[in-house]
Design goal:
alpha+beta; four-stranded antiparallel beta sheet; 10 helices
């Protein structure tokens, strides 16, 4: 169970590490996307400002050129509307000029491109307006004409050598460029991907970087005649490649996580069948020391099958060795008993032999000790026979000699037997 738990913990840890890796990679990707969005925002801001500066410069140059055009001055001086219509107006299209008015110093409309001689462009009192133009020639500002934000550039045109401050010597050229859908689309085409729109809210909106939808927006301030914020030109860019990449990453991240999960389950199942189960069988067999658990495992032709076969052989040899050891122990016990018995018999034998020897020694000693006095008796009896004895005493002495010799013969036989 410990091995199984360890494998389960390792598998769970592996899945957690995979999830953490993907989460960290996603966070790194989001951080990278945010950095990329910031960089693209800077590029959008720079390109928008450059584009507008270029357009404004071209617009102002066009106005400047026309304010010194001699043919235009002549046509205005003689009020030649036919020339203005046939020669002057066609040049406006190449510069996307939608409006043109020619004003007198009294703000009277001498000529209008669309024929509308009503002056719609005075945002302030006429005298202030004209004086401001004189002091700031080629003034560039924005106003609303017919509900559309329009860029206006006004330039004085001098007809005499008098000082420019003398309004009687001036007429005013007013050119207008509508920021309508067509013009904004042209800006979008030039900017390669940005979308432009005009916002007439009177406040400059904050630029934004939307990391969720990968949209960046920049707001360029459009000032009115007095220099106040009139509207905003919003340039927006959708970084679709980041969205596509995020969708791609999200989709394939889920696919990869699912695959890792499937691989993890397959890996765990493989370990359970190929490793955990054989290890469990080996563990049970080792604990019980019973080779019968190894029968199914031995038939497999893999490492665990070889281990099971070796382990079964080990159990068989161990059982044989245990049987031999038991038999040897039994033999040793019997030998110990026999040795004890032999030792006891030997001791008894030694004691018996010692008893026999003591008995023989005793008999020998006693026979020797008895023989000595008997020999003395026999010697004295033989001496008595030499004495003058009456017949009765002589018979007694003969009996004594006979008895003494007979007793000595018995003692000699006892000594000979004891020797044997």
């Amino acid at each position: 169970m410990k091995t199984k738990s360890a494998i389960v913990y390792i598998s769970i840890l592996f899945l957690i590490l995979v999830v953490v890796f993907f989460y960290g990679f996603k966070q790194a990707t989001l951080s990278k996307n945010k950095m990329l969005l910031n960089n693209r925002y800077v590029e959008l801001k720079k390109s928008t400002n450059t584009l507008l500066e270029t357009n404004n410069r071209n617009f102002e140059n066009f106005v400047l050129e026309n304010s010194y055009d001699k043919d235009l001055k002549k046509a205005i001086s003689i009020n030649d509307t036919n020339w203005l219509t046939s020669n002057f107006v066609p040049t406006l299209s190449s510069y996307n000029i939608d409006y043109v008015w020619i004003l007198t110093n009294n703000a009277e409309v001498l000529f209008a491109r669309d024929g509308n001689r009503i002056n719609p462009i005075f945002p302030v009192e006429q005298v202030t307006f004209l004086n401001n133009i004189v002091e700031n020639p080629y003034k560039n500002f924005y106003a609303t004409i017919n509900g559309i934000v329009t860029q206006l550039v006004i330039a004085p045109m001098e007809f005499s050598q008098k000082n420019n401050a003398d309004n009687s010597a001036l007429v005013f050229l007013v050119f207008g460029k509508k920021y309508d859908e067509t013009y904004l689309k042209n800006l979008s085409d030039i900017s390669a991907g940005a979308n432009f729109a005009t916002l007439q809210n009177g406040k400059l909106l904050q630029d934004s970087i939307n990391t969720d939808q990968n949209i960046i927006s920049y707001h360029h301030k459009l000032e009115d005649f007095l220099g106040a914020n009139f509207a905003s030109l919003e340039s927006t860019k959708i970084l679709s490649e980041i969205t596509v990449y995020n969708d791609y990453f999200g989709k394939y991240s889920l696919i990869y996580l699912f695959l890792f999960l499937i691989l993890g389950i397959a890996y765990y199942t493989f370990l359970g069948v190929k490793v955990l189960k054989p290890v469990s069988i080996l563990s049970v067999a080792l604990n019980s020391k019973d080779g019968s658990y190894l029968e199914k495992l031995k038939i497999k032709h893999d490492e665990f099958g070889n281990i099971a076969a070796l382990l079964d052989d080990s159990f068989t040899n161990t059982n044989k060795l245990n049987a031999e050891i038991a038999l040897r122990k039994k033999s040793e016990a019997e030998l110990k008993i026999a040795a004890v018995e032999l030792q006891n018999a030997t001791v008894e034998k030694i004691i018996a032999e010692q008893g026999k020897k003591a008995k023989g020694d005793f008999l020998s000693t006693m026979s020797h000790e008895i023989r000595t006095p008997i020999n003395g008796v026999i010697g004295i009896a033989n001496l008595l026979k030499t004495e003058a004895l009456n017949p009765s005493q002589h018979d007694l002495v003969d009996t004594l000699v006979f008895s003494s010799n007979y007793l000595l013969s018995i003692l000699t036989d006892i000594l000979d037997f004891s020797k044997i």
